[in-house]
């Protein structure tokens, strides 16, 4: 589970309500991720498209496996970019 900080949300005359927020992120702030993470996801998407095109209307195996290779490159990029450690909500 990700590290989360809790804070008290102020209110008038009632029990205190605890809110779960990320450290350094204001409530409602948009977190769009790093450009390298977007590039990695784009590479993975392109790989799935290439592999899918390789399966229609009949299997073209070299194109399918090219798509698989592109997806693997995208997955390795996400590891180096630390996408799931830093950009994950």
Structural class: mainly alpha
Shape: elongated
Radius of gyration: 21 Å
Distance between the termini: 11 Å
Helix count from the secondary structure assignment: 3
Please write the string of helix (H) and strand (E) elements.
EEHHH
**Percentage of residues in strands:** 5-15%
Oligomeric state of this protein: single chain
- Tell me the helix content: 40-55%
Q: Mean pLDDT, rounded to whole units?
A: 77
Task: Describe the overall structure.
The protein is mainly alpha-helical. The protein has a domain at 33-89. It has three helices and two strands. The model has no long low-confidence stretch (mean pLDDT 77).
Keywords for this entry:
89 residues; 3 helices
Helix and strand topology:
Blueprint: E1 5-9, E2 17-21, H1 35-53, H2 61-81, H3 83-86
Helix pairs in contact: 1-2
